[in-house]
Amino acid sequence: MISCCLQRSAFCRGTDNRRKPLGTIWETGYYWMTHLQNFFRYIRIVGTHNTVNKIFHIVAFECMFTNKTFTLEKGLIVPMENVATIADCASVIEGVSRSRNALLNGDTKNYDWDSGYTCHQLGSGAIVVQLAQPYMIGSIRLLLWDCDDRSYSYYVEVSTNQQQWTMVADRTKVSCKSWQSVTFERQPASFIRIVGTHNTANEVFHCVHFECPEQQSSQKEESSEESGPGEPSLAGPQLDPHALQAPGGSSLPSSPGSASRSPNRQHQ
To answer: For the F5/8 type C domain, which residue ranges apply (predicted)?
Structure first.
């Protein structure tokens, strides 16, 4: 809870996050002024909850003024730009990848059989993205691995606390390839969980890119540049995309007898 005052006697509450979804790392709070001018000298921050212990910790604090306008809904920011980025302190907290946060680095071109994607074994685990703070979210966009003609099935859930999850997309009975746009009723979200349920090539679900909310402008640019889904990437060595090492050192398995769908694939 954040409150402000001029004389250190009567604090005026600016933001109240006591009952709002979990925030982590860098969190941005906006005090919406009810008058043309507000003068503050003191800012009081009161921690009310910690998921680990009974202490509230702050590493850094900044206070600024902006003329930029924001849309608020139920006290949370409705983002117009992609907030699932490394720069915005989002992170991948579940899923296997050769490069940490490859899912969020914005690179939708440089991926192949060996790198540039995040994955999980079907029937076990998921890919989970944690945003830096809770937002009102109504859309996401995914790029499924598409260097051959395979298709995937999956579903998407959102949560504010990693305990109660709400399904916002069910594509478990749909054959999905390449770019995926997911829209749903806007709701608070700090965590987005993507669970793969089927892969026509093997037993692993692969995702190259994630953004939240969906960026329409970038989608148009990519559609005009791409020659179509399924065109193999020529960058990097052509290795089997199920050959990642999961935490603990064991390889993510493929389905028995999975056949190559690309002439460049190397059997292992």
So the answer is: 99-205
